[in-house]
Amino acid sequence: MELNIANIEIEPKRHTFGHIAKRFGEDRPASRYEEAVYDGQATENFHYRPTYEPEFEIYDVKRTVIKMDDWYKLLDPRKFHYMTYVSTRANQNAASKRNFELIEERLLTQMIPEDIKEIIYNYLTPLRHYFYGVNLNNLSIVSRGYGTALNSASLFYASDSLGNSQHLTKIVLLLSDNNVERLEKGKNDWMNDPKWQPLRKTLEDIMVVKDPIEILVSQNLILNGLLVPLLITQFSNTLVQNGHITVSLLTEFISQLQEESIKWLDSIVKVMAEESEENNNILSKWSKSYLLKADEALAPLSDYSDNTDILPQIRLDLENRLKKIGLKI
């Protein structure tokens, strides 16, 4: 008996899911990012309005004054969905872990004089609490924003902020030989030191803002746009100029996250600004207002450097960035 086995190629009836096919047609294969993000949020058949804000539906475009024909225009240029986000951060964390291990093995922390360590503690330890606040503000965007494209990326940003806080904790414990009293002092400085109070007030003022896009502009675009270059990047560079490279290696992880997040923030703010003149005017007004507040909040914290132009230069760089994405600054 002879048995012949032949290959049969079965042509799929369609190349993607129904919600993608509604947008692009049956024959357009979609990326995993598009499948994960487009129209993932429920839009109808809500049974109850939230008791805390009965004037809105659970997901409601009226929670912000920004108007979009399609909130799924706010796509993430990094194409982050769960798997790509987790694998990217895992690789970055592995590289950061190697830096920590190298510094421990070579005993590089012992080469930092105690007076320099005090400066590092004074500026980096209170920042743990700042990034906890950034996490909360981004979770507020997630709970009040509209569309999976915006909310999923904001949730990743919130997780990154929590990661930054934990990363700073590891740095302080490594430098102090696991002295937890350093963390307590940092919390006390955040709560009571006069030079940290303007920043704390600005952060907490954003916590009571209800418009999710205003939170995104004030917290992520403006305040982080000034703070990370000032208190992470330039702070580390100043230590390098004085012969101490260790902190620069340890904080590289936070600087990389900021550079990567700028691609997402600039992209979606540009899309919103191009949607209409009204949107552009609102975004520009928010940006100018929070630029002034952030500048005043961070001025007392730029005293680690003798360069009095360090904060004005960072602000000028941010203003040029905002102009580049179309805002009227």
Automatic annotation (TrEMBL):
Keywords: Monooxygenase, Oxidoreductase. It comes from the Bacteria. One of its GO terms (molecular function) is oxidoreductase activity, acting on paired donors, with incorporation or reduction of molecular oxygen, NAD(P)H as one donor, and incorporation of one atom of oxygen. This is Phenol hydroxylase. It comes from Halarcobacter anaerophilus.
